[in-house]
Amino acid sequence: IKISKSYKLASRDFHPDDTVIDIKGVKIGGNNLVVMGGPCAVESPEQIDEIARLVKAAGGQVLRGGAFKPRTGPYSFQGVGVEGLIMMAEAGRKHGLLTITEVMTPEYVDICAEYADILQVGTRNMQNFDLLRKLGTIKTPVLLKRGFSSTYDEFLNAAEYILAGGNPNVMLCERGIRTFESYTRNTLDLAAIPALQQLSHLPVISDPSHGTGRRELVEPMSKASVAAGANGLIIEMHTDPDNSMTGDGVQSLFPDQFANLLKELEQLAALV
Ligand code: PEP
Ligand code: MN
């Protein structure tokens, strides 16, 4: 085995075949396209229930929603906390969807894993090494978001922490990086999708919502991500984006846009 990089377990040199993570029958990785949809933040039982219904009806497989939100400012809405985990688990169960939610600290890993099927590490915590080490001690799948100023090498080394701890169920998420461009919130690095797949066997998920910060760019960048070979998408969708509790309403699709996009993606995925 040729190992020239600082990471090993995350490398395709070490593990030539694609990792496929099977979560209750939903396969993530390989030739499958998984769609995760939902609000930036869980707001109320009614909100998450209705959005879950719409994600399921559109053909999505995973319900996304933050109960703990990593906000830039301390006075902004911080998420509804553990109550949100319970609301989301209930909505996922009722509508037959897997769930994904963000965990920010090692102390909350166990309770988040009790309620959610996939744990998300946010861009701001990609190098929170204590959190990564803790996630290595469980088997719950982890969606690791790329730090907004991190290289592929740093990203894969962060994944390595989780793998080295003994958790093989890691997916990588390109969610945009900080560049000089200010029209978009971040610059979605499309090349990261094939590059990470060449360097690593782990599934690569694209986040065109945070990757652009603009609703009107989510559809084209979702399609571009699938054309580039993404194993899945994580997309913000809200029934009332203008009144959502985080600023991410501006990048959230309306339910009909989400449903139309999923129909088109199905056709596109068949070609890739
Ligand atoms: C989110 O998914 O709502 C989120 C906070 O993402 P990121 O960590 O990529 O900013
Ligand atoms: Mn968000």
Automatic annotation (TrEMBL):
Q: Which residues form the DAHP synthetase I/KDSA domain?
A: 19-269
* Keywords, comma-separated and alphabetical: Transferase
| Class of enzymatic activity (EC top level) | transferase
Its EC number is 2.5.1.54
GO molecular function term, any single one: 3-deoxy-7-phosphoheptulonate synthase activity
Transcription: present as a keyword of the record? no
From the Swiss-Prot or TrEMBL record, give the protein name.
Answer: 3-deoxy-7-phosphoheptulonate synthase
Question: What is the species listed in this Swiss-Prot or TrEMBL entry?
Answer: Paenibacillus aurantiacus
Instruction: Report the gene name.
Output: aroF
Span within the full-length protein is: 63 to 334 of 353
